[in-house]
Amino acid sequence: MRIFRHSIFSGELIAATAALLMLLCAPVTGKADEAQQTEYRIKTAFLYNFSRFVVWPESAMRERSEFSLCTLGETLFEEQLDTLAGKTVHNKAIVVKRHSQPQQVLDCQLVFIGEQQDLTETLRTLQKQPVLTVSNIAGFTKKGGIIQFQLIENKVRFRINADAASSAGLTISSKLLSLAIDVTGSR
């Protein structure tokens, strides 16, 4: 697997790394609704930063005028995801799209897969496509997904399946890999 390296650490990259580290330390506490909202804000920030620390094949990005961050099925933090619309990543404005069928997300760069989805069909449809898959589903990375959120001691953490990323043609930054609680596959 190729690892994205910067020869010059720009202020933007350092700031993004610091933001990721702060997210890892941010506990999800408080009342139920307040804790959920905090969790959703943190996951939204992670999705944004994942998109910054992953490189897509040039062929998958060249013809696109926007960066599509999509949801597949129901997600509980769609309102939070809408806050990312218009931000830029890889010099493209983020557009948030909602879909209900796996075939509809083939033109997306990042897909958050809701828990009600048929994971086998979804991952089969997206296999070897340049799409970063993320989900809360237990065992997601073991089943072929790329990044899995997991709540551990009231903190949002994540696991990475490096082989699935490589199969999709995605390059994950070594900085992002180092922040994961678990990386399966070759580095």
Largest sheet: 8 strands, mixed
Number of strands: 10
User: What is the architecture at the second tier of CATH?
Assistant: 3-Layer(aba) Sandwich
Total count of helical runs of at least 4 residues: 7
Instruction: Give the C-alpha Rg.
Output: 15 Å
The CATH topology name reads: Rossmann fold
Helix/sheet category: alpha/beta
Low-confidence stretches: 1-11, 26-31
Alpha carbon gap, first and last residue: 6 Å
Strand order of the largest sheet: 3-4-2-5-6-7-8-10
Structural description of this entry:
- This protein has seven helices and ten strands.
- With 187 residues, it is α/β, with parallel strands linked by helices.
- It has one domain (11-184): Rossmann fold.
- The strands form two sheets. It has an eight-stranded mixed beta sheet. Strands 1-9 form a two-stranded antiparallel sheet.
- Helix 1 runs antiparallel to helix 2 (32-52).
- Residues 1-11 and 26-31 have low confidence and may be disordered.
